[in-house]
């Protein structure tokens, strides 16, 4: 008797994107509208286009990130399986990473060919997260001092974390966003 994961495998967002979406006319139409290369089963199961970040990010940057569109590309279990990824990518996109940042290098690849850059504005919760990330960017700049255009070092991260006291784990997400969004001369 298969376990629960076995019964839902075909509906898992990663599996659905790679093996089912290409068989659905609605997914093909949406992918064409967003200039997404939709995987076709065994024909494209490697590379960044086979991961769910690619379609999620495209929906976000084009402002078409609706429950219906997520279901169309990722299947019926998208919300329970991909919500955390969607939340992280929305913050990444809304921070608009500058050239030279690790996040900018990644976004150039993922966003290549996007028909437009029109993400929805942040909601109240996202505004708070963006504010935390920007505050963390300021802490990072202060910590780095004159090296502000260079690589973020482990010692910089350690100093910032130590300065947060015992509740430092709640700030890891905003610290990660700040490091990824920092111009470190990447890709130049």
Jot down its keywords.
disordered N terminus; single chain; mainly alpha
Describe the structure.
The structure is a single chain. The protein contains 10 helices and no strands. Helix content is 56%, strand content 0%. The longest helix has 21 residues, at 124-144. By secondary structure, the protein is an all-alpha fold. The chain has helices at residues 4-8, 13-20, 25-33, 53-61, 67-74, 78-94, 102-111, 124-144, 154-162, 172-180.
| Low-confidence runs of at least 5 consecutive residues | 1-5
Number of strands: 0
Multimeric state: single chain
H/E element order: HHHHHHHHHH
Q: How big is the Rg?
A: 19 Å
Largest sheet: none
Class by alpha and beta content: mainly alpha
Determine the N-to-C terminus distance: 54 Å
Topology:
Layout: H1 4-8, H2 13-20, H3 25-33, H4 53-61, H5 67-74, H6 78-94, H7 102-111, H8 124-144, H9 154-162, H10 172-180
Helix pairs in contact: 4-6, 8-9, 8-10
Outline of the structure:
The chain is mainly alpha-helical. It contains ten helices and no strands.
């Amino acid at each position: 008797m298969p376990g629960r994961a076995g019964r839902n495998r075909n509906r898992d967002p990663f599996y659905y994107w790679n093996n089912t979406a290409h068989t659905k006319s609605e997914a093909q139409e949406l992918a064409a509208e967003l200039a997404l290369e939709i995987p076709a089963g065994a024909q494209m199961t490697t590379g960044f286009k086979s991961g769910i970040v690619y379609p999620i990010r495209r929906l976000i940057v084009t402002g078409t990130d609706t429950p219906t569109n997520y279901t169309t590309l990722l299947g019926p279990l998208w919300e329970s399986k991909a919500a955390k990824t969607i939340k992280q990518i929305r913050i990444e996109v809304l921070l608009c990473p500058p050239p030279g940042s690790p996040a900018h290098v990644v976004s150039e690849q993922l966003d290549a060919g996007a028909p437009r850059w029109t993400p929805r504005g942040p909601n109240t919760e996202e505004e708070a997260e963006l504010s935390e990330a920007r505050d963390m960017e300021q802490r990072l700049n202060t910590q780095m001092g004159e090296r502000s255009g260079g690589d973020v070092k482990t010692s910089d991260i350690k100093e910032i974390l130590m300065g947060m006291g015992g509740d430092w784990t709640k700030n890891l997400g905003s610290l990660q966003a700040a490091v990824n969004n920092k111009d470190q001369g990447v890709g130049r």
